[in-house]
Design brief:
This protein is an alpha/beta fold. It is built from 4 helices and 3 strands; from the N terminus they run ααβαβαβ. It has a 3-stranded parallel β-sheet with strand order 1-2-3, covered by helices on one side. The mean pLDDT is 83.
């Protein structure tokens, strides 16, 4: 039995029409293509599409989002991806990932 997931439905409807996202993803993929593998924090990862694409290039990616439904969707999408490198998702906020300031 399949359960309706509004976030998944909205993502699938909008994804193919999102020219901005596809352009942004292409720019980022070209930027990281000639660089050593990185650890990447994707803040506001949504459905995980960009995180998965970067992980497929071999990068170690952590995607965070404040919305639990998007994290569930991102995890489902990562599980369905045919090849995916190190990629994980968590419900979180950028404010929880601040580095302490160095004292001078």
């Amino acid at each position: 039995m399949t359960t309706f997931n509004q976030a998944q439905y909205d993502d699938l409807v909008a994804r193919s029409k999102d020219v901005y996202a596809h352009t942004k993803y292409g720019i980022l993929e070209r930027y990281v293509a000639d660089r050593p593998l990185m650890r990447i924090l994707n803040v506001g990862c949504g459905s995980g599409d960009l995180s998965i694409r970067l992980a497929q290039l071999g990068h170690d990616v952590r995607g965070i989002d404040v919305e639990p439904a998007y994290i569930r969707l991102a995890e489902d999408n990562a599980n369905r991806a045919t090849t995916c490198g190190p990629c994980s998702f968590a419900v979180s906020s950028p404010g929880l990932h601040r580095r302490p300031r160095a004292h001078r």
